[in-house]
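Question (not urgent): is this output format expected?
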Amino acid sequence: MSKVAYHQSDDKPSSTTGAREDEVPEGQVQDDSYVMGADKKGESVTVIGDDAKVEEPVDAKDADSDRQLERDEKEAIDESNIVEGDREKPPAGSLKEPSDEDFGLVEGT
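Got this back:
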């Protein structure tokens, strides 16, 4: 059996999010302290700040379009790998599993 943990309240009131109102910052929050960080060995790590311009690799006019999807599918499909026509159906009874008698596992009755 487990013991019941009763609700404990702080002296200070909290909001519906659980954070006290004096702990919540107002306005736009920006902390770039991580930009000049270092790894465990003390060497500097290249980090891009929040305000740095980043090159957009996707062209906006081609992004997320049916045309781009069609081009990608044409490039991805290897025509030499496609089997022409249907495969023939195997003869009836050819896929039947052998019985125990066929393996000699049943003694004569």
